[in-house]
From TrEMBL:
<keyword id="KW-0496">Mitochondrion</keyword>
<comment type="similarity">
    <text>Belongs to the OXR1 family.</text>
</comment>
<feature type="region of interest" description="Disordered">
    <location>
        <begin position="111"/>
        <end position="144"/>
    </location>
</feature>
<dbReference type="GO" id="GO:0005739">
    <property type="term" value="C:mitochondrion"/>
</dbReference>
<dbReference type="InterPro" id="IPR006571">
    <property type="entry name" value="TLDc_dom"/>
</dbReference>
<dbReference type="Pfam" id="PF07534">
    <property type="entry name" value="TLD"/>
</dbReference>
<feature type="compositionally biased region" description="Low complexity">
    <location>
        <begin position="118"/>
        <end position="134"/>
    </location>
</feature>
<dbReference type="GO" id="GO:0006979">
    <property type="term" value="P:response to oxidative stress"/>
</dbReference>
<dbReference type="GO" id="GO:0005634">
    <property type="term" value="C:nucleus"/>
</dbReference>
<feature type="domain" description="TLDc">
    <location>
        <begin position="182"/>
        <end position="364"/>
    </location>
</feature>
<protein>
    <recommendedName>
        <fullName>Oxidation resistance protein 1</fullName>
    </recommendedName>
</protein>
């Protein structure tokens, strides 16, 4: 049973259109029937839903007007039978929307040339042409919007180079004669300065206050030269060429009790490895908070740090004998021992030394 549909053509690609008719009926004119040629190169899906025919170019103008007084009926290619000769004079037209996918399929089946696509688009009715254009515009707008929403890949900036390691500023050691033995060197002073309070760290230079070689071996002379100083660095070099000492936040003065504050510290310099004999490393021992035994200056000795009957650093008024031990004030190691010495781990360790040279340094603003 065949059904013929009459209405607006779905598409016209060159001379190819799709015609749908809702009411059956024979063609009004037999000559029009012979002017239709069935096209069999379409897909099974399209041919199963519609009958698609090829119209002469003369018939396109009448189809584009969407007005049919007597619509021709298709010939049956399989049966070859002639359709009946009676038909209603005017057939009702059915209006409906066509999926854009079907139009795209028809364009693909028509050959895909640029000329055929432009011709088919111009031959479509306004409703279908606008629908297909809207679909194309929607796809184009969606693709454009998606491209706009997609962020462009940014060129990755090269990773910033790590800041150069800040080199310690050399310390100027003033007022020491060239022939005087050196207990404190510029290299040790530059490392020690990093552990000092801000005021002493910003000092422009260090000035020699007392030296055994330049000023003589005398406790009174040492105390006289230290008068008026706000802070001091004590440096001792023993007969084994080990250098150690203390930072005193107050000057040396005679006192029957301990005095000073928690910015005082003990330090020792040592060779970081047996191969690096020209460069010494400095290790500082700061205030532990356990007691307040910072500075003790007696006419017979000088002591820095204490507790449990021992001193962190002690030397006699003859500037020859001295000792160093672990003390609770600074929780320090014996200063005249190398860091790898086994006695450093002993909390009761105490080591005696012989003073080779002793210096005291003040700070210039």
């Amino acid at each position: 049973m065949q059904r013929r549909y009459s209405g607006e053509p779905l598409a016209c690609v060159s001379a190819t259109v799709v015609e749908c008719r809702p009411t059956p009926g024979p063609p009004a004119d037999e000559n029009d029937c012979h002017s239709l040629q069935r096209r069999s190169s379409l897909s099974s899906r399209a041919s199963s839903a519609f009958d698609i025919y090829t119209f002469p170019l003369a018939a396109e103008s009448s189809l584009a007007r969407n007005e049919f007084e007597a619509a021709p009926a298709p010939l049956s290619p399989r049966l070859g039978a002639q359709p009946p000769q009676t038909a209603p004079a005017v057939l009702a037209r059915a209006s409906f929307s066509v999926p854009a996918s079907l139009v795209m399929d028809l364009r693909k089946y028509s050959g895909g040339s640029a000329g055929s696509r432009s011709c088919s688009q111009e031959s479509l009715p306004p409703s279908l042409s606008s629908a297909s254009d809207a679909s194309g515009e929607h796809d184009t707008a969606g693709a454009a919007r998606e491209a706009m929403d997609t962020p462009l890949p940014r060129a990755q900036a090269p990773a910033p180079a790590p800041p150069p390691r800040q080199q310690s500023r050399p310390v100027q050691l003033l007022a020491r004669d060239a022939s005087t033995p050196k207990a404190l060197t510029e290299a040790i002073a530059a490392q020690l300065r990093l552990a000092l309070p801000v005021q002493q760290r910003l000092a422009k230079s260090w000035r020699l206050v007392y030296s055994m070689d330049q000023h003589g071996i005398s406790m009174n002379t040492m105390l006289e030269r230290c008068a008026g100083e706000k802070a001091l660095v004590l440096a001792i070099k023993d007969t084994s060429n080990r250098v150690f000492g203390a930072f005193l936040n107050e000057t040396l003065r005679l006192s029957p009790t301990f005095y000073g504050q928690g910015t005082s510290l003990l330090w020792k310099a040592f060779r970081s490895s047996p191969q690096s004999r020209k460069k010494d490393a400095v290790k500082c021992f700061k205030y532990s908070g356990e007691n307040e035994y910072f500075i003790l200056c007696d006419p017979g000795f000088v002591a820095i740090g204490g507790g449990r009957g021992k001193f962190g650093l002690w030397f006699k008024d003859d500037f020859l004998h001295g000792s160093t031990a672990h003390c609770p004030t600074f929780n320090n190691q014996p200063l005249c021992l190398d860091p790898a010495h086994p006695k450093n781990a002993d909390p009761d360790a105490q080591q005696e030394f012989t003073v080779g040279h002793l210096e005291l340094w003040g700070f210039d603003a």
